[in-house]
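Continuing the series of single-chain predictions for the mutant panel. This is the parent chain; the variants come on the following pages.
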Amino acid sequence: MSSPSITIRSLGYSDLPQVISIERRAFPTPWSLAMFVLELSKPSGVCLAAIEDRRIVGYLICSRYADIWHLMNIAIDPPARRRGIATGLLEEMISRAGRDASYTLEVRPSNSPAIALYERFGFRSAGTRRRYYQDTGEDALIMWRTAETASTSSASG
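Parent structure:
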């Protein structure tokens, strides 16, 4: 990560006011408080906070479904972007959930910076979900990371 002043730790319920604030600045259709509470209540999930100067600047929510990890949400506060914080969160998620685990996510095809980040971690496009995003009707690109695709990526190890 490019900023040594960033620390990554588990996300807790007391972090949710800051998380909701970032969520509203980061996304046109933000998650509700109830959605975050539900994800935090799952014992097998990986929920992370990136902290700078005792303030949350980014977070990640990843849920486990059977043998698959689903990256549900990752956001960086807009003024803190392009500093390697999302990279650090993804590295920590993979460290905690397992380098050889399988991961999936959905991303807007128009979000080329996010797609490039995921590809550096070994995620590969595997189709689309039609009209996935309710705010615009945009499709979602489905991406997968498996042990095989991870071994060909530059950020996998």
